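Q&A FORM
Asked by: J.P.
Topic: structure of Staygreen protein domain-containing protein

PROVIDED:
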Amino acid sequence: MTKLNPDQLFVEFRSGVTMTEPVIGRKYTLTHSDITADLFLTIGLQFAYDKINVMRDEVLAEWNMHHGSPFLFVYVYVDGAFGPEVTAVRDAIFRRELPLALEAIRYGDRKLFVAHPALDSAPIWIHFDSTNPLYNKFEHWGTPGDYK
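REPLIED BY: S.T.
REPLY: Here is the structure written out as C-alpha coordinates.
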Protein backbone atom coordinates (compact mmCIF):
# COMPACT_ATOMS: atom_id res chain seq x y z
CA MET A 1 0.00 0.00 0.00
CA THR A 2 1.18 3.48 -0.85
CA LYS A 3 1.01 6.05 1.94
CA LEU A 4 -1.02 9.18 1.36
CA ASN A 5 0.92 12.26 0.36
CA PRO A 6 -1.30 15.14 1.58
CA ASP A 7 0.30 17.45 -1.00
CA GLN A 8 -1.24 15.29 -3.73
CA LEU A 9 -4.77 15.34 -2.28
CA PHE A 10 -7.14 18.03 -3.50
CA VAL A 11 -10.46 18.39 -1.68
CA GLU A 12 -13.58 20.14 -2.94
CA PHE A 13 -16.64 20.78 -0.76
CA ARG A 14 -19.81 21.18 -2.78
CA SER A 15 -22.97 23.08 -1.98
CA GLY A 16 -24.93 21.80 1.01
CA VAL A 17 -22.00 20.51 3.05
CA THR A 18 -19.57 22.17 5.42
CA MET A 19 -16.40 20.76 6.89
CA THR A 20 -18.45 19.30 9.76
CA GLU A 21 -22.07 18.85 8.60
CA PRO A 22 -24.12 16.94 7.67
CA VAL A 23 -22.92 13.44 8.46
CA ILE A 24 -25.74 11.26 7.15
CA GLY A 25 -26.09 11.66 3.41
CA ARG A 26 -22.56 13.03 3.05
CA LYS A 27 -21.08 11.58 -0.14
CA TYR A 28 -17.51 11.19 -1.33
CA THR A 29 -16.25 10.85 -4.88
CA LEU A 30 -12.56 9.99 -5.07
CA THR A 31 -10.81 10.08 -8.43
CA HIS A 32 -7.17 10.25 -9.42
CA SER A 33 -4.72 11.13 -12.17
CA ASP A 34 -2.67 8.24 -13.52
CA ILE A 35 -0.12 10.78 -14.79
CA THR A 36 0.50 12.86 -11.64
CA ALA A 37 -0.80 10.42 -8.98
CA ASP A 38 -2.88 13.31 -7.60
CA LEU A 39 -6.07 12.37 -5.77
CA PHE A 40 -9.26 14.41 -6.06
CA LEU A 41 -11.85 14.12 -3.28
CA THR A 42 -15.23 15.74 -3.81
CA ILE A 43 -17.52 15.93 -0.77
CA GLY A 44 -21.18 16.77 -1.28
CA LEU A 45 -24.79 15.71 -0.98
CA GLN A 46 -24.59 14.02 -4.39
CA PHE A 47 -21.84 11.99 -5.99
CA ALA A 48 -19.69 14.05 -8.36
CA TYR A 49 -20.62 12.18 -11.53
CA ASP A 50 -19.05 14.99 -13.52
CA LYS A 51 -15.65 13.84 -12.18
CA ILE A 52 -16.06 10.19 -13.25
CA ASN A 53 -14.35 9.08 -16.45
CA VAL A 54 -14.84 6.08 -18.77
CA MET A 55 -12.27 4.03 -16.83
CA ARG A 56 -14.73 3.87 -13.92
CA ASP A 57 -11.90 3.58 -11.39
CA GLU A 58 -13.44 6.01 -8.91
CA VAL A 59 -14.28 5.20 -5.31
CA LEU A 60 -17.71 6.31 -4.12
CA ALA A 61 -18.63 6.42 -0.43
CA GLU A 62 -21.43 7.76 1.73
CA TRP A 63 -22.50 7.91 5.33
CA ASN A 64 -25.66 5.95 6.16
CA MET A 65 -27.45 4.71 9.28
CA HIS A 66 -28.28 1.14 10.27
CA HIS A 67 -30.27 0.51 13.46
CA GLY A 68 -29.36 3.97 14.74
CA SER A 69 -25.62 3.69 14.11
CA PRO A 70 -23.62 5.33 11.33
CA PHE A 71 -21.58 3.35 8.83
CA LEU A 72 -19.55 4.25 5.78
CA PHE A 73 -20.75 2.49 2.62
CA VAL A 74 -18.13 2.34 -0.13
CA TYR A 75 -18.79 1.32 -3.73
CA VAL A 76 -16.37 0.29 -6.45
CA TYR A 77 -17.31 -0.86 -9.95
CA VAL A 78 -15.07 -3.85 -10.56
CA ASP A 79 -16.21 -4.81 -14.08
CA GLY A 80 -15.32 -1.58 -15.85
CA ALA A 81 -15.82 -0.77 -19.51
CA PHE A 82 -13.37 -3.30 -20.91
CA GLY A 83 -15.24 -6.58 -20.53
CA PRO A 84 -15.09 -9.50 -18.14
CA GLU A 85 -11.51 -10.45 -19.01
CA VAL A 86 -10.18 -7.51 -16.97
CA THR A 87 -12.43 -7.97 -13.94
CA ALA A 88 -9.81 -9.96 -12.02
CA VAL A 89 -7.16 -7.32 -12.72
CA ARG A 90 -9.46 -4.46 -11.66
CA ASP A 91 -10.46 -6.35 -8.52
CA ALA A 92 -6.79 -6.77 -7.57
CA ILE A 93 -6.05 -3.10 -8.25
CA PHE A 94 -9.02 -1.90 -6.20
CA ARG A 95 -8.02 -4.15 -3.29
CA ARG A 96 -4.44 -2.90 -3.45
CA GLU A 97 -5.44 0.79 -3.65
CA LEU A 98 -8.48 0.89 -1.33
CA PRO A 99 -6.43 1.45 1.85
CA LEU A 100 -4.97 4.58 0.22
CA ALA A 101 -8.44 5.68 -0.92
CA LEU A 102 -9.84 5.22 2.59
CA GLU A 103 -6.89 7.12 4.05
CA ALA A 104 -7.55 9.93 1.56
CA ILE A 105 -11.22 10.12 2.58
CA ARG A 106 -10.33 10.06 6.29
CA TYR A 107 -7.62 12.71 5.90
CA GLY A 108 -9.48 14.87 3.40
CA ASP A 109 -12.52 15.08 5.68
CA ARG A 110 -10.56 15.12 8.95
CA LYS A 111 -12.48 18.10 10.39
CA LEU A 112 -15.66 16.00 10.23
CA PHE A 113 -13.96 13.36 12.39
CA VAL A 114 -12.77 15.98 14.88
CA ALA A 115 -16.35 17.28 15.18
CA HIS A 116 -17.81 13.74 15.34
CA PRO A 117 -15.12 11.51 16.90
CA ALA A 118 -17.44 8.48 17.14
CA LEU A 119 -17.28 8.22 13.34
CA ASP A 120 -13.74 6.87 13.66
CA SER A 121 -15.30 3.72 15.15
CA ALA A 122 -18.05 3.32 12.54
CA PRO A 123 -17.81 0.24 10.32
CA ILE A 124 -16.76 0.52 6.71
CA TRP A 125 -18.66 -1.74 4.29
CA ILE A 126 -17.41 -2.07 0.73
CA HIS A 127 -19.46 -3.32 -2.22
CA PHE A 128 -17.26 -4.70 -4.99
CA ASP A 129 -19.81 -4.52 -7.79
CA SER A 130 -19.47 -7.11 -10.55
CA THR A 131 -21.72 -9.22 -12.72
CA ASN A 132 -19.33 -12.10 -11.98
CA PRO A 133 -20.37 -13.74 -8.66
CA LEU A 134 -16.70 -14.46 -7.94
CA TYR A 135 -16.00 -10.74 -7.64
CA ASN A 136 -19.40 -9.36 -6.57
CA LYS A 137 -18.76 -9.05 -2.83
CA PHE A 138 -19.80 -7.07 0.21
CA GLU A 139 -16.99 -6.85 2.77
CA HIS A 140 -16.21 -5.21 6.11
CA TRP A 141 -12.98 -3.16 5.92
CA GLY A 142 -12.51 -1.95 9.48
CA THR A 143 -13.25 1.60 10.59
CA PRO A 144 -12.13 5.08 9.48
CA GLY A 145 -9.87 5.19 12.54
CA ASP A 146 -7.88 2.34 10.99
CA TYR A 147 -6.95 4.68 8.14
CA LYS A 148 -5.70 7.72 10.12
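FOLLOW-UP: Residues 87-108 form the longest helix (22 residues).
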